[in-house]
Design brief:
There is one protein chain. By secondary structure, the chain is mainly α. The protein has ten helices and no strands. Helix 7 packs antiparallel against helix 8.
Length: 193
């Protein structure tokens, strides 16, 4: 299922060159697409001092940037961290969340929101199951020679299917600071032809 969601998000045609011909970049960067260059800069400007001073910042991972100032062993850790969705799919999902008021994105946003809700409900069930097992057998060995309630407690904390999508709220900025989209793309997203 994750591979289908990943494929669906990667196919979103938001960043085809024909939609960005009139885009005026606020913070031009020749290394990346102009919108993401602007967005990354605006995002970083919105971080508080604690967030800005974190050495090993997962926000860089989302934008596929490994900071040069990291020691080599931390750069290797960055490379081994894997999201379940690709960076391209994550950027598409973030773009949908940012501009969800456009008619083109309303159903896509509902799908993403429903996936997060499914994860939340499964987590609620796992937690209720853990509490029931803890009440019934305490900390004794569980089925299949697991550690019982301890195993369930750990499983409840780490078994999120759509953790990547739920984590996108970390990357949201104030709506009034969102980069203005080019008119070609606005026409496409508004179904106005």
């Amino acid at each position: 299922m994750l591979s289908q969601i990943n494929g669906w998000l990667e196919r979103m045609p938001f960043f085809e060159p024909e939609y960005w011909t009139s885009y005026q970049a606020l913070f031009p960067d020749i290394k990346s697409q102009p919108f993401w260059s602007d967005y990354t800069t605006l995002y970083r400007e919105g971080l508080n001092e604690y967030e800005k001073n974190k050495i090993f910042d997962y926000n860089y991972l989302f934008f596929e940037i490994i900071p040069d100032e990291l020691p080599d062993e931390q750069k290797e850790q960055f490379k081994t961290l894997k999201n379940k969705l690709t960076a391209k799919a994550m950027r598409a999902a973030l773009f949908i969340m940012l501009y969800r008021d456009f008619p083109f994105f309303q159903n896509s946003f509902r799908i993403l929101d429903t996936l997060i809700e499914i994860d939340n409900r499964l987590a609620g069930w796992r937690h209720a199951h853990y509490r029931m097992v803890r009440r019934m057998i305490g900390m004794r060995v569980g089925t299949g020679n697991t550690s019982g309630a301890g195993y369930l407690e750990g499983a409840a904390a780490k078994n999120y299917i759509f953790r990547d999508i739920a984590g996108l709220s970390t990357f949201l900025i104030e709506r009034n600071k969102l980069p203005r989209l080019p008119k070609e793309l606005i026409r496409k997203l508004s179904f106005a032809e």
